[in-house]
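Course assignment 3, question 2. Fill in each field.
Student: A.L.
Task: Predict the tertiary structure for the chain below.
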Amino acid sequence: MELSFGTVALVIFIIAMVFVIKTINVVPQQHAWVVERLGKFHAVLAPGLNIVVPFVDRIAYKHVLKEIPLDVPPQVCITRDNTQLQVDGILYFQVTDAMRASYGSSNYIQAITQLAQTTLRSVIGKMELDKTFEERDHINTTIVNAIDESAANWGVKVLRYEIKDLTPPAEILHAMQRQITAEREKRALIAASEGRRQEQINIASGEREAAIARSEGERQAAINRAQGEASAIVALAA
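Answer field:
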């Protein structure tokens, strides 16, 4: 009889512990947990100690509210001048509404990624190849604005988008490198020519100043001789 009572007490204790464990939930800082009651949305648990009803409530979704970097897979885009350009970028976003992030989309990360790729192709398609390298900031801003408008329905805030790499075809890349080399050689020739011109100017200026100095010296010497002769004549006359 005592063994039977002890067994029952142990079972009751285990059930009570399970009940307590399922009742008390501690949500970490910068996290949000979505609770469903009998299959329907009930509440969003804030960071700290929270109590739910065991076997009636369940934690359906857990979201991180920190800034999250999302690597957007590289893709080939066609520019306005029909040049293929491989673009690689990274997107930064943050969950701002846990309920919408749970029920607004079946997979908001995949939705953001696909929308970023679609928007990127559209933006690149309106630009010529040279402009894509010059207007990275414009591309980044356009993508963020386009995604952020749709992502609001998914409980997500898009913070920024950064292009990591723009890679044109090999033949275009070689042509660009040749152009850069030609520009560098041109600047080197101009610099050398400017150096020679400045050198000639300096030499001519030095010769002119030397001639002026010689002329000034000869003039002063003539004045001194004339003054000396005049003084001698005055002395003899006296």
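Instructor remarks: The chain has three domains: 23-64, 67-168, 169-237. The first strand starts at residue 24 and ends at 27.
Grade: pending
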